[in-house]
Structure prediction request, 696 residues.
Amino acid sequence: MPSSTSNPPAPARRARATGRVTLAEVAQAAGVSPITVSRALRGERAVAPELCERVHAAATALGYVPDPAARALASSRSSHVAVLIPKLSNTLFVELLDAVQTSLVPAGYQTLIGVTHYDAGEEEAVLRSFLAHRPAGLIVTGRDRSPAAAALIEGSGVPCVHVMEVGAEPGGHSVGFSQRDAGRAITRHLLDGDRRHVVYVAAQLDPRTLERGEGYADAMVAAGLQDRVHKLLSPEPSSMALGGALLERVLSEVPDTDAIFFCNDDLAQGALLAALRLGVAVPGRVAVAGFNDLPGSDQMVPALTTVATPRREIGEQAAQMLMKLMRGQPVEQPNLDLGFQVVRRASA
Amino acid sequence: MPSSTSNPPAPARRARATGRVTLAEVAQAAGVSPITVSRALRGERAVAPELCERVHAAATALGYVPDPAARALASSRSSHVAVLIPKLSNTLFVELLDAVQTSLVPAGYQTLIGVTHYDAGEEEAVLRSFLAHRPAGLIVTGRDRSPAAAALIEGSGVPCVHVMEVGAEPGGHSVGFSQRDAGRAITRHLLDGDRRHVVYVAAQLDPRTLERGEGYADAMVAAGLQDRVHKLLSPEPSSMALGGALLERVLSEVPDTDAIFFCNDDLAQGALLAALRLGVAVPGRVAVAGFNDLPGSDQMVPALTTVATPRREIGEQAAQMLMKLMRGQPVEQPNLDLGFQVVRRASA
DNA sequence: CTGAAAGCGCTTACAG
DNA sequence: CTGAAAGCGCTTACAG
Prediction:
């Protein structure tokens, strides 16, 4: 029974100590006040170098670890950064997440993952629950969301960076690349290879997929092929098996097709394997191009021509930008375009 | 200068309100004390049905959302569950994570992801930082870790479930399957197909990979082929490209090889594609088997024979078990073996 | 079954 | 540059 004063028969106090070393103990050991410890450890405001040293020494000696919950409660801001992605089954988003995490964790932030399943309602629910945790920052996929979700973000006042697309939304922050330009570029590559009957095949019709389709149409029109614009859009989730099925469908429904631009590499990989099974020569009979340059695309037979997208760099840069926002530092380039790269391999 | 008594001309109070609806406001609205609200909302201890209803009505009307930070501070237990996995680049772990998350989020828990990169030091560091967040629970991959890491878990008193392997460690909790039995089963399948020169090829030599190798050796010995036990172990990270390279190496170094058991489907998929490029007939010249049944294995040419592992069920069951532990409920089966399935396809 | 008091471990807002 | 006081929003531990 610890006593708060030094009177001998101290009354029994309600003990609720958690056993962890507290700021107060560090302060006592260093011979300063708790606030000074708080400031010295956070490196905030000027603290006399000498005191600063003493505090750090005491903290290290005692093995002090700040309590995130206490911090969050007192400052009304946690060390969490919530990251919203559509799906964990798409390698693209996992790599993005990995990059964000790798950048944020060493800086003392914890990543909270929210999976929205491409669903506006789920996104709202996830956002609502995350916002209750008073995150220090937010990273969300894309610019397109329900008004309610947008209002939640806006109203929370939590710094937010949008990833995967670029767009100069006033006051907004984003890191990505132009999906439309990328769709145009890979289509142009197919046209440059003297293909004329190019079909765009897409699944999981999110806004980015549709933008790539716009780019495809741009390129077709620019080549005078406006009459040949042909999009096969499937709302199903993307998969290799679906890619194979869609290849078959295109070849039977539009037999004169001589090139296909798949909106994602998993579809394209599936198409390549189906072509192998069916004896369809690629690129002889039909050229195939994908998007994203996912793992395995370089191993396909033939190797898949695709667009390499910088999701790791996007994750890193978004994390850097967000850290500046969270610290109240200025961001010189609020809409960062990281570009893309057409990767010419054997399939197209 | 705030007054602690009720003297009329109240001095301006230091405002630090965060704008959120608090428990106290709900209590006032419902005409009960804050503790009653707390109890009614958590469903803990008996609260008169009538009061309970009034509280819920008031909470809903005001749009009350409990503050996780305040909760964590007061109860010294957060709503976080930390999940430690080796790598995000392995689909296996992402699916595990997805399943855990899907089970835990609806119950009000937040998942914190820790990536250890198969490194004991990183695991310790991640554990240390997570434990500071006072997680309600822990899910870790495998049973094998540094004594320091094990001590951190043990000493924290945080409920912990080990996944992917099974083993009756006294007092421990686990959900998984026998990696060794699975390795034995797929090898036996190859032997049943009249293969005799079966080689085990592995990369990213974690404990589970090595156990599969033990199972392989078991089966070889049981078939009287102890002289033919041949393992090619590469410490490199697993990838499709590596699988192709290892296939070439095996065929040139051990030309009489008639079957290969790859420790993971990504290696096996890469090997299958390399075989296609090299003109090596599968299964004619060499049979190929993988492990895990990852996405795409069923699409390969030929389709990959492999072992389907129940990582989603493992994730779900681990989450269920952990929730029981976190609530102090009894767990009837502390070491859950979910088994595996040999999937016979065309490659072996 | 209900509540008044204290406290979790920090930081904010003032003051000097 | 440093600190005493108050408070963030909950829950624990007692008491009735």
